[in-house]
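Table S2 (continued). Query chain:
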Amino acid sequence: MCVGVESDSTEDIKERVETWNVLLGSQAEEFAKDSKRATLFVFATSRLALISLKPEMGGAGIWTDDLHLMPAVHAIFAERLLGSLIKP
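Corresponding output:
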């Protein structure tokens, strides 16, 4: 598991992340099944953030708290996702 910052409640964070991932997966499957014309992507932003965004953030933190990425990180992901979907 990838945790954004150290926390006194690492087990609580781990449990929340695992619960979220299970719910997200089942809801994404349901949405994809009901929305035949939609394309659905589910990926782990925490791993991508730690690997590829820290240098881009100029040494600034990438986490708002133990669980949430900074708005600037979301903007970078959105830009990269859009760029991967719409090729020139």
